[in-house]
Fold this sequence. Notes:
Blueprint: H1 3-14, E1 18-22, H2 29-38, E2 41-46, H3 50-53, H4 55-62, E3 66-69, E4 81-84, H5 93-100, E5 104-106, H6 108-115, E6 120-124, H7 129-142, E7 147-151, E8 169-173, H8 176-179, E9 188-191, H9 205-217, E10 224-228, H10 232-238, E11 244-249, E12 257-261, E13 264-269, E14 272-278, H11 287-300, H12 309-315, E15 324-329, E16 332-336, H13 343-350, E17 359-363, H14 375-382, E18 383-388, H15 393-403, E19 410-413, H16 417-427, E20 433-436, H17 449-461
Parallel strand pairs: 1-2, 1-4, 2-3, 4-5, 6-8, 6-9, 7-8, 9-10, 10-11, 11-12, 16-20, 17-18, 17-20, 18-19
Antiparallel strand pairs: 12-13, 13-14, 15-16
Helix pairs in contact: 7-11, 7-12, 13-14, 14-15
Amino acid sequence: MHLAQQFRAFWERMRGKRVAVLGIGVSNTPLIRLLLEAGAHVVACDRQPEERLGPVAEEFRAAGAELRLGPGYLDGLACDVLYRTPGMRPDLPELLAAQNAGAVITSEMESFFEVCPCPILGVTGSSGKTTTATLLAEILTAGGKTVHLGGNIGQPLLPSVPAMQPGHFVIAELSSFQLMTMTRSPQAAVVTNMTPNHLDVHTSMDEYIRAKENIWRHQTPGDLAIFNADNAYTRDMAGRARSRTLLFSALGELPEGIFLKGQGIILRQGGAETLLLSRRDIRLPGLHNAENVMAAAAVAVQYGCGSAVAGVAGTFAGVEHRFQLIRELGGVKYYNDSKATGPDQTVAALRAFPSEPSVLLIAGGSDKHVPFDGLGAEIARAVKVLILTGPTAPKIEDSVRREGADRLPRIVYVGDMAEAVHVASACALPGDAVLLSPASASFDAYNNFVERGDHFKSLVQAIPYADI
Length: 468
């Protein structure tokens, strides 16, 4: 079947079907619109009451959708197809009951992989995946390719399929939640790293790893998989992948792959060495961002865009909410790293700062049940004032007291973000940095890390100069 025909077949398959979409969020709102346009009878389900959903609920009702909202929204789902939202476990009793009654359980990303007409280059990992995916999209675009960037990065891909052509490329950021039930893999797969994460949803680290492995598990020998040689989990994956593999390393030379040698980022392949760029040319600070550049470059060179790597790396200023410099006031720099929802991401951000403690760190949030081992030592090295909030605050303090030896920062507990920014701005001196890098999820106080980061930015922008 021609690839364009696959989308038409999907469209016709949905016509007249009773389709439940579970969760009216970022990824599913465009899906609901698409299904309504296709002629499906859509049941839009969400645990939030209608007043919390706002105008979108009124829009969907006016378009003919049936709304099931509030407590019990998953009860008695008598539908032909169920689209679960990312983060919803597929083995919930209500979903299994619907499946036993004949419903097909799927997701927006699974349907996209079924009908996408062009190569998919997927990126996953515990950290760095948004930066790597965005870098890769910028590099391929600079190399003359037409690129569609989406997935876990916040842009659903299925509704964009009509604009895609066989010669285009899709860069898909993929979370463990999206990968959990995938039976297809992208033509190129990147795994940036693996550390404990999302253990509030996954039953174990093993389940989390198995979900991530779906990005390469269903590849063919002609496909490509890129792995971090410096991470034990991803190094093990490289030995088990059926596809062509390429490794990258920031810690040592590789017989084949991309690695950091002095200040040079080198590609060694087929017995030849190529200098792709100097680390000094990378605009984003920190060794972790050099790793992100290497991961993106490893894919780009396979698609003929290696010459574009240096130019993009030299101008790329980062993605929103990821180590984002938002203001410099009175000699103090304010960074928004709200996307750091795990301790390893906060460690990476802190390593971008020199040894002398100069950071006022705002951390804490909701608990993903991951260990904070290693975070305390890095906080003790780089942080002069640790400002804590949320349920994970005591765990972060405990890690500092266990690992900080005789070099402990001043520790301040606050009730909310407004108080945190007030304390930070009052304590900061010229040459210091105020860093929001929570090492925790946001759900204790915000709907997501974007909302948290936006609130932080608005508070910082509102600081008058006289307060510094």
